[in-house]
Write a structure and sequence with these properties.
single chain, 8 helices, 8 strands, about 35% helix
């Protein structure tokens, strides 16, 4: 008998998304996948957009721009009837305030929209205070969700060493992002409260894959990383309701 497909959605990066179809026992396709967005952007005010102004023909990049402006994730997340898997890997991207609200400045967005009248850069929350912009956004994000919404937080970080032990080519950048991500995950998980289940990845699996389909980067990992992640998420998705805390 064929098992029922797992039902879950993702707000995060390809690192989490690859658990759906990489390795020996992938999770299968997520119901919804929201990517290249930041927590402060998700909870911000929508910005009017004319789809005709988007020049890219890449369907994924078009969808990202439209989702960012329309705040599609903020509309969809309160209505989920299944667990949500979140990682903070896209917090590496810059943010722009359009004059209406915050959007994540992807490369496709920059090509068509960066520099327009009324825009301003959004200052990065480097201090991560408990009452700072990121923490406030985390609480607003948590408030979007149903009180009983299950959230699996995938604590993904950047690699600092290659498989042979040598430093990655962007070591300083990896270290800078990791130094920010550690306390950022703590703030995010704290805001979610008991709804959050956490997947912490073994450091020895955080190894860049030179043959990764997305390219050789310090945040594109070997298949073993995704196999481990898929197993951890599957275990959390299939835990019986009476066994959940």
């Amino acid at each position: 008998m064929t098992p029922e497909p797992l039902r879950y959605s993702i707000l995060g990066t390809c690192v989490t998304r690859d658990a759906a179809d990489v390795g020996r026992a992938p999770l299968g396709r997520p119901v919804r996948y929201f990517s290249r967005t930041r927590i402060q952007s998700v909870v911000s005010t929508p910005t009017p957009i004319d789809p005709a102004e988007i020049s890219t023909e890449n369907a994924f990049n078009r969808r990202v721009i439209l989702n960012e402006h329309r705040k599609t994730a903020a509309q969809a997340l309160p209505r989920l009837d299944h667990p949500l898997v979140v990682d903070l890997g896209d917090e590496r991207l810059r943010m722009v305030h359009t004059g209406h609200g915050i959007v994540t400045a992807t490369s496709a967005f920059k090509k068509d929209f960066l520099g327009r009248s009324g825009q301003r850069k959004v200052k990065e929350d480097t201090e991560l205070r408990a009452d700072g912009p990121f923490a406030e956004a985390c609480h607003r994000f948590a408030a979007l969700l149903r009180p009983d919404q299950r959230v699996i937080v995938h604590r993904t970080f950047w690699a600092e060493h290659e498989a042979d032990g040598s430093p990655v080519g962007r070591l300083a950048e990896s270290q800078r992002h990791n130094a920010w991500l550690f306390p950022a995950y703590d703030l995010f998980i704290r805001a979610l409260g008991p709804r959050a289940a956490v997947v912490s990845m073994p450091q020895e699996l955080r190894v860049p894959d030179p043959y990764n389909r997305w390219g050789h980067e310090p945040f594109h990992f070997v298949p073993q990383y995704h196999e481990y992640l898929a197993a951890q998420i599957r275990a959390l998705l299939t835990v019986p309701a009476h066994a959940r805390v």
